[in-house]
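User: For my dataset I need records formatted as: sequence, then structure tokens, nothing else. Please produce one.
Assistant:
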Amino acid sequence: MGQKQPDKSPREKINFVCPQCSYRFECPPARHEEDEDRPHHPFRYFADCPQCDTESPQAHWEINLFKAYANATGPKTEEGKAISAANLDGHPTPEEAQLTRFNAMKHGAYAKTAKFFPARPGKYPQCDGCEHQNEHYADDSACVRHKACLKQVEVFVRYQSAFDAKDPNLLLELQGHRQAAIQSLIDMMILTINQDGGPRIKTVEWYYDKDGSFHLAQWKDDDDKAHQIYKLEEHPLLKPLIDYINKNSMTLSDLGMTPKVQDDQDMMKGFLDHEKGDKEAAQGFQQRIEKQQDTLLSLIQDSYDEADVIDVTPSEADNG
């Protein structure tokens, strides 16, 4: 059988990519040219970009797709069809089935994530520097094409995989990143407190009199010299900082660095050393007892000398 003839008629809708702003769009071509170098589909298509009015060529992936369609004839003979069917034996493999299940779960995660985190390029804090965002045109970002924030999709997929497999180890990498972010947040809180002058904030006291005039609160000493009254308050970040440290087990007692913990460890170490010494002493005593027993047995055996055997007849014994 001959090869399938490609469709050589011009298409009504074509996908384009703008070479200036990288905007992708699909529309009827504004013009087309014949191209004999493309026997599978001998046309070149062009259209004006709706964003910057630059004339844009057809997307390369669609050109390759036209060529793949033209060359994909498939088996025609009975033998070819039998060989093609035999290629499906043993498929899907367990790995392929797992991949298919993962893809289904991933696409389901897109829908679930879109419910809480729909695609909003530049509107989320994580959008700044996101690798999925188009720098030239936000509406052409990957998250827009998937209708959901891809950063949150990754979190959804990780948790869904861990709960389906009932394996918390699948969350170790994610929890490690989160713990590192918490540690960075704690460091920034400490730095902010230090830059603000320490754990206390000093503010000027003031008041309004009965006429509505503004005055600074002051007091006078014995020399009638005025002194400003200040209000001392703890830094507002101090309490959240302590909560973060306690809840993440970062205190000195949690790290085993307090004097009490060190003394307890030394006492426990001495107790273990004492037990070890008693055990070694008992083993040495048992070895000495066994050695003494062996020596005593040897002495007992040596005390029995072998006597001479005398043959005496009964008559000699009577006469004797």
